[in-house]
Write a structure and sequence with these properties.
There is one protein chain. With 249 residues, this protein is an alpha/beta fold. It is built from 12 helices and 5 strands. It has a single domain, classed as P-loop containing nucleotide triphosphate hydrolases (Rossmann fold). A 5-stranded parallel β-sheet has the order 2-3-1-4-5, with helices on both faces.
Length: 249
């Protein structure tokens, strides 16, 4: 009888092992924590292989691909190549899908992107960053990410909330973020399990997509001229996103 009760407790508290998440699609800013988000989602439920779609490109996308990916056991994923396009697209399409957006301080994202694009190139960090400033496509991807905030159609997770103390964040906030995310996709877990997932989440030495993952790395990476560039091009957006209160940084 005692063993039966233990089994019942396990089944009740880990009921997500026998259920499926609600249909969702993730939309991510390049170098904004895409693989961190996918990693935690695959911890919460059974692993789903990522399926990346260029949803703004009619030559490589048809409207049913997201549904087909999900029903085939995949994790549909779109990069925010154009935030406004993504915003408008999902207001018109896939009404049965939840949409998870992960955002990151654009300054940290730019630094990470510079190291990713020029990985193995023998130039200074300063020059790598200067070069990505000229990348018009990434500039478009990084602007107006704040449109996803406070809109019920989009569930926003911040890199800074998810990365935890190993990435310069807060452990309790990480645990709560994972707990809330699991609940949002219909796979509720305990806070203890959310905390354990967080402990295993940060870092992957074998991944070319993960370098340092530290909050605020821009403070040491950017020179004064580069900081002024950000103030000129992203100053208002950083305030809208909540990463700054003014231009005094």
């Amino acid at each position: 009888m005692k063993n039966l009760m233990i089994i019942w407790v396990i089944l009740f508290t880990h009921s997500s092992l026998f259920s499926n998440p609600d249909p969702y699609v993730i939309a991510t800013h390049p170098k904004g924590g895409s693989h961190l988000l996918m990693k935690i989602l695959n911890m919460i439920h059974e692993p789903r292989p990522e399926n990346a779609f260029c949803h703004y490109d009619s030559l490589h996308f048809h409207p049913n691909q997201i549904e087909e990916s999900w029903h085939a056991g995949g994790m549909p994923w779109v990069h925010l190549f154009s935030p406004h396009f993504t915003y408008d697209y999902f207001h018109r399409n896939h009404p049965d899908f939840k949409i998870i957006v992960i955002l990151r301080d654009p300054r940290d994202a730019y630094v990470s992107y510079a190291h990713h694009v020029y990985r193995g190139v023998d130039i200074s960090e300063e020059e790598k960053i200067d070069r990505v400033f000229q990348d018009e496509a990434y500039f478009e991807m990084s602007g107006y990410l704040s449109i996803f905030l406070n809109v019920p159609r989009f569930y926003v997770v911040r890199f800074e909330e998810l990365v935890g103390s190993k990435g310069g964040g807060d452990k309790e906030l990480q645990t709560q973020t994972i707990y809330d995310l699991a609940d949002y996709i219909g796979m509720p877990i305990s806070t203890a399990l959310a905390s354990a997932y967080g402990d295993d989440l940060f870092g992957n030495a074998g991944s070319i997509n993960f370098r340092k993952g530290q909050i605020g790395s821009w403070k040491e990476a950017l020179n004064e001229e580069q900081k002024e560039w950000f103030k000129e091009h992203f100053g208002d957006e950083l305030i809208r996103l909540g990463y700054e209160h003014d231009y005094d940084w």
